Amino acid sequence: MSTRAQQYAAVVTDRTALSPHLVRLTLTVPGFASTTIPDEWVGLVVPGQFQSRYYTVGSIEAERLVLDVVVHDVGLVTEWAAGDPVGDEVVVTEAKGSFLPPADAGWLLLVGDITALPAMARIARERGGDLPTRVVAEVPDDTRLDGYFPDGVEVTWLPVPGDAASRLAEVVARLDFPEGPGYFWMAGESAQMRAIRKHLMRERALPSTHYDVMGYWRAVAQRRPRAVDPGPIWRAGKAAGKSDEEIWADYDAAREAEG
């Protein structure tokens, strides 16, 4: 039997544009429990939707939660975050994380695209003082943010290719890893991550305990509108006083009717 993740009611108290592609949201989340794992993430459900999207916890202090949100042309959260969300009530799910260096790790190597930037920054802040840390970040030129990473961390900025397709698998294949055992952490586009995971297993022969590679998103040739938009169904269901389970059932029925 599956169990529903813990949910917390939250209010957006501040929005700051860090770049044209990255927005920082500050939320007040009473009762929120952090895992204290540096790459922990939460689900975020914004007004007008009932599906969650996942974001790294940039920082948590008492009830103050900070999320750095990557904005795209379209998306469940993008259109909302690109506007004026201050004062909006949202839902945050319980935190989960996976960052776990082995006891013998003598270095950290963090690699990712713009979606991994918040996690790499928090890992660097919280563990960069313990272990020599290098960051390789594939981001747009306007998101090479001064001061985003702490002093003492080596940062290499990579340009986003002209066709906007990630090249991180090629980059990792050419990287010189530090000597001795360490911990390699990476996140980005799913196909790139699959290729990198194979490279680490077959060519580098790294033990599985010494790396963590996660697909944060999936590239498609062209973003297509959803056949059934969950937004109107969610709003109509809430207006009718329906439970989340009933709204989900309405959404599933609409999907089936669409074929």
What does this structure look like?
Helix content is 23%, strand content 30%. It has 6 helices and 11 strands. The protein has helices at residues 78-81, 117-127, 168-174, 190-202, 230-239, 244-258; strands spanning 7-19, 22-28, 41-45, 53-61, 64-70, 89-93, 108-113, 133-138, 154-158, 183-189, 211-217. A hairpin with a 2-residue loop joins β4 (53-61) and β5. α3 (168-174) runs parallel beside α4 (190-202). The longest helix has 15 residues, at 244-258.
Walk me through the topology.
Elements: E1 7-19, E2 22-28, E3 41-45, E4 53-61, E5 64-70, H1 78-81, E6 89-93, E7 108-113, H2 117-127, E8 133-138, E9 154-158, H3 168-174, E10 183-189, H4 190-202, E11 211-217, H5 230-239, H6 244-258
Parallel strand pairs: 7-8, 7-10, 8-9, 10-11
Antiparallel strand pairs: 1-2, 1-6, 2-5, 3-4, 3-6, 4-5
Helix pairs in contact: 3-4, 5-6
> Rg to the nearest angstrom?
19 Å
Helical content (DSSP H or I, runs of 4+): 10-25%
The total count of helices amounts to: 6
| Low-pLDDT windows of residues | 221-225
- Structural class label: alpha/beta
What order do the strands of the largest sheet run in, or round the barrel if closed? 1-2-5-4-3-6
Beta-strand segment tally? 11
Strand content: 25-35%
Q: The biggest beta sheet, please?
A: 6 strands, antiparallel, barrel
Order of helices and strands: EEEEEHEEHEEHEHEHH
Distance between the termini: 29 Å
